[in-house]
Amino acid sequence: ELISSLRSKLRMLWEERELVLSEARECAELGEELEAMVRELCKPNEFERYMMFIGDLEKVVSLLLCLSSRLARVQNAMRRIDANTDAEEKQSLNERHKLLSRQREDAKDLKENLDRRERVVSGILDKYLTDQQLQDYRRFVQLKTSLLIEQKDLEEQIKFFEEQLGSLEKSIP
To answer: Which residues lie below 8 Å from residue 66, measured CB to CB, with a gap of 6+?
Structure first.
C-alpha cells in the first residue's frame, strides 16, 4: 500500500514537472521576444547590460537554491547526530555547515548586487518600452525566477520520493 502510494505521488510530481517545464518553455519564448525587442530599441551597450542581467539572473537564483538545498541536507544530517556518531563525522558535518553557510551568504550578496543591476536595467528599459512592454519584462523576470524555484523544489521532491521508494522496495523480500 505504501509503495503504491509513493508511486502515485511520484506520478503526480512527474506530471507537475512536465507542466512546469512547459511553462518554462513559454517563458523562454517570451524572453526571446523581449530580447529581440530590446536589441532593436536599445543601444548596444544597454542591450549588453540587459543580456548580462538576464543570464546572471538564472545563475544566481540557481546557485542560491542549490546552496540552500545542500545546507538543509547538512542540517538534517546534523539533527541525526547522536552519541553513536563518530567525532570525525561530526567535525565533517560542522565544517560543511560552516562552508555552505558562508557560500550562501556570498550568494545572497550576489543576489543583492543582481537586484541593483535589475533596477539599472529597468531604468534603461523605461526609456524605450511602453508601459505594457515594461509590464511584460517585469512579468518575465518574476516568472523566470518563480519557475526556477518551482523546478528545483519539484526535483528535490522527486529525488526524495524516488529514494524512499527504492529503499522500501529493497526492504521487502
So the answer is: 152
